[in-house]
Amino acid sequence: MNNPNKYLRYSALAFITSGALILGGCSDNNNDSPAPIAPSMQSYTVAVTNLTANQPMSPIAVVNHQVDTVLWTSGESASLALETLAESGDASGLSDEVAVTELTNGAGILLPGATESIAISLNSEEIADLSVVTMLVNTNDAFAGFTGYDLTNLTVDESMTFRVIAYDAGTEANSEAKGTIPGPADSGEGFNAARDDSNLVHAHSGVISHDDGLADSVLTASHRFDNPVLLITVSRTE
């Protein structure tokens, strides 16, 4: 005679095993994360206009750097790279600054009244802060531009316009003397490692010139400038 209890035990075991297989086939894995978004390229145009009468600008330096960093601060000493640019117009040293991720140079000297547009493309993961800087070459150590603009503020087809002043790097005395100015007014010395001025970046007080009473100056009244000295428009195009 068959044992009914044995039959019930087998049935219960089969039910439990079947249930385990069903449960085992179900996934409770909620760790599926969306595929990472591939970085895209974002495009910008930096248009720079020289507003001075007779101050050519050194090749424009467009600098991308880490967020919340700047290339200069008024009242503080200029870095060696900024000193070199402000005295000689050579911006190449900026690429070695710790926070700088990309340096793009303009095509050449920006003449008075001229405008140059510089296109840059940046990886979307690298969009951070932007600086634009150049030297007024008929000076001892004057430079102009802005530093630390947050590019993430711009959406496609938006622009930001800056009217910027001239700064004194504070690294070379503004003697305007023969042999001390690298621009066409003198074709003199550019960078000099010695610092013989305040050693603090500040708003430039302007050129005096020979015509206005500085007897040893190689500059004329035409080399004087008022602020702003540059008009800069940054546009996001893509």
Description:
- By secondary structure, the chain is an alpha+beta fold.
- The chain has a single domain (41-236), classed as Sandwich (Immunoglobulin-like).
- The chain is built from 2 helices and 10 strands, in the order αββαββββββββ.
- The strands form 2 sheets. It has a 6-stranded antiparallel beta sheet, covered by helices on one side. A 4-stranded antiparallel beta sheet has the order 4-1-10-7, with no helix packed on it.
- Strand 5 and strand 6 (142-150) form a beta hairpin.
- It is elongated and about 75 Å long.
- The termini are far apart.
- Residues 4-27 have low confidence and may be disordered.
List the helices and strands and how they pair.
Layout: H1 4-24, E1 41-50, E2 61-65, H2 80-88, E3 100-105, E4 115-123, E5 129-135, E6 142-150, E7 159-164, E8 166-168, E9 202-203, E10 230-236
Antiparallel strand pairs: 1-4, 1-10, 2-3, 2-5, 5-6, 6-8, 7-10, 8-9
Q: What's the total helix number?
A: 2
CATH superfamily: F-spondin domain
Count of the separate structural domains? 1
- Report the structural category: alpha+beta
Number of strands: 10
CATH class label: Mainly Beta
